[in-house]
Design a protein that fits this description.
about 70 residues, alpha+beta, about 20% strand, globular, binds zinc ion
């Protein structure tokens, strides 16, 4: 396994999540990359300080740190 590639990828997705959270917080519409469905932010997660952004079909489900 190439760990450097893995690190790079997870850091990129971290920034992607941050941008996504910013957009959702501003009330912008964010679409799923796969099905183009509109992502909704669900704040009723078991863990406080976390939200889940997901599309209607469920192919995108991103856990966001809100704290
Ligand atoms: Zn989707």
């Amino acid at each position: 396994m190439d760990f450097s590639a893995l690190t790079k990828k997870s850091s990129a997705s971290f920034n992607q999540h941050k941008n996504l959270l910013k957009k959702l917080a501003k009330g912008n519409t964010v679409k799923c990359e796969k099905c183009q469905g509109i992502l909704t932010l669900d704040l009723k997660t078991p863990k406080p300080g976390q939200g889940v952004a997901k599309c209607p079909k469920g192919c995108t489900e991103i856990v966001l740190e809100l704290g």
